[in-house]
Design goal:
By secondary structure, the chain is α+β, with helices and mostly antiparallel strands. About 35% of the residues lie in helices and about 20% in strands. It contains 4 helices and 5 strands.
């Protein structure tokens, strides 16, 4: 029997992104009573201790009423914990969309979960304190 971290050809997978966070999402039919979400080898509640981040990661499933119907395995890297939760939401939405376009596409598109949030951190420029902030001016 395959371990939970190995993925088969039957898995449906997509990539979700947000800022510099990248989430690879693998979806397969559930094995037990309730579907589980496994993030980097840990449960969703263990990986995201804040309930708000758990809710963000689960929004795609909640919108489509598919919560608990699938086992979801996620490898996420980069960015902060908040952008990782948004990357997981984006990845799950893309997986659900590729699985059944007729049913889920309109709901997910209307909520904006299929669109990658393209906002990135602006680079720091030389001679400035940050991207746009200047050092304090002193006349004397």
């Amino acid at each position: 029997m395959a371990s939970p971290t190995t993925h088969t050809e039957k898995d449906i997978h997509q990539t979700g992104k947000r800022k510099t966070a990248i989430a690879r999402v693998y979806l397969r039919p559930r094995k037990g009573e309730m579907g589980m979400i496994n993030v980097n080898g840990r449960s969703l509640e263990e990986y995201f201790p804040r309930p708000a981040l758990q809710k963000i990661a689960m929004q795609s499933l909640d919108m489509t009423s598919t919560n608990g119907q699938y086992d979801i395995y996620v490898n996420v890297a980069g960015g902060g914990i908040s952008s990782q939760a948004s990357a997981i939401r984006h990845g799950i939405a893309k997986v659900l969309n590729s699985m059944d376009k007729d049913t889920f596409r309109l709901t997910l598109k209307k909520a904006g979960f299929l669109t990658r949030d393209a906002r990135e951190v602006e680079r720091k420029k030389y001679g400035l304190a940050g991207a746009r902030r200047r050092y304090q001016f002193s006349k004397r």
